Amino acid sequence: MKKTAVFIIFALIAIMLCTVGASADCGPHSSVKVTFPDADTEFYVTLLSKADIFGPYSARDALERRDRYGDEGKNAAYEKFCDYADADGFYFLGELGHCGGGTGVYDWRWGYYPPETFKVLVYYPGTDSFETSAVVTQYAFSSYFTIGGIGSGTLTVKQSYNYALEAVGFALRVLLTLAIELLIAKPFGYLAPRTRRTVIITNIATQVLLNLGLNIINFQAGWLAMAMSYILLEISVFVIEGIIYTFTLSHRDDDGRRRGIAKAWLFSLTANLASFVIGGLIARAEFIR
Q1: Residue-number span of the structural domain to which 230 is assigned
Q2: Is the domain of 170 the same as that of 247?
Q3: Closest-CA residue to 211 (of 162, 278, 264, 140)
């Protein structure tokens, strides 16, 4: 039992060190998606930030990265955004989207640290004019907005959270994590019908708790609190699964001593690290444009 306790302590330290490094770039990040249902005119769009520094972005860096695009039109629009003076003092952080017009519907996603409080700003190169919205705040881990009022002088922003899409995304994340855990379970010898059923049920339950916890924290305290809590929640999942696997995947020998405890904890650690890093990399590849 002492050896098992020492192993668990070192396992917890290892997962904390690994997840700190991984979560800095690969963990879940909030995203903002804006949809223009009537995108018949060419325009460029950005989100002006209330803060001059947010995540890896800063207004100063944006000014220093002029001519960052190979496209002349995009560089010209970038210059316009840099020179734009917002009435409420919001800042351009250097990210922009381009709609060529005639698309009917145009979607733009800022998927890597979008500003939490922002304004939608649109620039029309054809008329060299701007339109902006009122102040908007992210309302969920993935916030969706529909933009109206094109050509009226003031943009309207309406929340349009896609619950069906989020449900599908959650189901895919659970299936991905489950597939990874089952793949790792094979060399551990945990693919017998009884142990496989235990892994599946435990994984689904902990993934529901993890995602529910992240969303509750994000809704109530914002993305920063959610990001800070993510590592603790991941460690909690690791511990919960480790405890469950201790009693369900180990066995007692003829002397009544429980065997296979360290193996069960090692499986929990390996599976959670793998699913965390791989899932984070896939999420980042999806969100970053």
Answers
A1: 2-26+163-287
A2: yes
A3: 140
